[in-house]
Every structure is written in structure tokens, then in C-alpha cells.
């Protein structure tokens, strides 16, 4: 239900910007992006440590399970997760729900950043399965996600 209201809010914002007199609305890129970001429910994650990585026992279990599933992953793929170690993260915020294509489209239109691309460089939104407005955006680099937030 929250995703629906967020999607409706983005559509409303787009419709208002199309039909209002340009003198009546703020047209700076930051105001459009700010409107999108304000509609997103952000959750604060407090700072702290967590244990990252896997134990040898976990790796063996993952590897054996992958063989049962006819996976082509080799044992070294799992060994990259060792050793377990503590990692400290500063406090940060994350959206409660995935960022949608509609929300991200407003961002790229205002900032002139490139559209999401697949790992071979293909235009993801050219694929009708991946360009639906209310589905989560994919093909975004870490740098684009950082710029969005």
C-alpha cells in the first residue's frame, strides 16, 4: 500500500509539472529531486559493528548446497568470504522500500545522469519487463545510488 501511495505521489508530481504554468512552480533540479526524496520513507540505521564473512563450516555447507542445485560455482567463490572479521559502519539512512523506476527517472531527468545500464552496457529501460514505473530500479551503479541519496 505504501508503494502505491509513493507511486501515486510521483505520478501526481509529474502531472502537476506538466500542466502548471512554469511561473507557478519551482523548476530548479534540486526542487524536483527534493520532492521525490521527501516522498520516500527513510529509516535510520545506527552505527555499530557486525561480523562480516563466513566460517569454514559455512563455506563447506554453501558449497555442498550449490552442488545439489547444479551450480557452476567453485569452492574458491565461497572462500572469498573468509576470514570472518568485525566491520564498523557509521550511522546511515536507507529507504524502507526499493527505489522505483518512476522515482529514479525523475532524478536522471533532472540531473542528466545516464539511464541504468546492464552489465554489458545495454539500456535496461529498453526492456519492457524492466521499465515498469512501480518496480524497483535495477542497473544503478554505486556512484549513481550515492548521487541519488
Automatic annotation (TrEMBL):
Residues 41-149 form the Sulfatase-modifying factor enzyme-like domain. Pfam families: FGE-sulfatase. GO terms for molecular function: formylglycine-generating oxidase activity. InterPro entries: CTDL_fold, Sulfatase_Mod_Factor_Kinase, SUMF_dom, SUMF_sf. Transmembrane segments: none annotated. This is Sulfatase-modifying factor enzyme-like domain-containing protein.
